[in-house]
Amino acid sequence: MNDILIIKNLTKQFKGEKKPSIENINFNLKSGRCLGVVGESGSGKSTLARAVTGLIPITSGEIIFDNNCISRFSPARYKKIYKDLQMIFQLPRESFNPVRSLGESIVLNLKNFGFNGDLKNQAVSLLKRCGLDSTFYNKYPGEVSGGECQRAAIARAIASSPKLLICDEATSALDMIVQRKIISLLNELKEELGMAILFICHDISLVHHMCDDVAVMKDGHIVEKDVTSRIIHHPDNEYTKALIEASNMY
Ligand SMILES: Nc1ncnc2c1ncn2[C@@H]1O[C@H](COP(=O)(O)OP(=O)(O)O)[C@@H](O)[C@H]1O
Ligand SMILES: [Mg+2]
Predict the structure, then answer these.
(1) Whose alpha carbon is nearest atom 24 of ligand 1?
(2) Which atom of ligand 1 is nearest to the CA of 56?
């Protein structure tokens, strides 16, 4: 399998800050694989996600997505790759326009990505694939639960069959049972669509269920990275050990 995402020496220091929020981050992510990024709050996970998706400019390093170096892309050029690179966030309601129904938001994405035909029908199929029946097409973000809204956000994100889906704490605002269901859905979609997932989460026990590989972040650096089973069962790093001990994994 090819590397869909290659991160080389990625550093981001916000203006006025004394030290970088992320520094010299390196990893590769292959198509069809799921890489978990774990670490405590403030370790730089969202900065990494926002840098990769072009929401913030980087300080130095390279981001290679689908064989293109995108690290210096303008917002307009970034827009063109969003068909293949999608992101879901912790608070799905905030990523939807409150005055547009869930279905209409999905239709808008399909239009933006150049799809044509019966877009309403396609949106209903996407909602159904994500566990929401056709009545959700006409519901507004404020009328559904957090879990339902996240399902709709996933339906919208997979509308263009992206090659990479970045999930930044996508299940963190949900209760445990809903979290597990969303993770199963993401795992199924990963298999069906062959997409890669960058799964960012502070909870190592969730990452354990979801990811092929795990990168552990602390203070803006990756302190350990390997296949999930090795990280969970034989962690080398003291911080990784502490994260596992503090989780409710066993
Ligand atoms: N826009 C910003 N301006 C200045 N500092 C920021 C900004 N966004 C994040 N940071 C800082 O970068 C560090 C990493 O934050 P973040 O990436 O949000 O961590 P995480 O997602 O792991 O909780 C924190 O110290 C945070 O205060
Ligand atoms: Mg974060």
Answers:
(1) 42
(2) 1
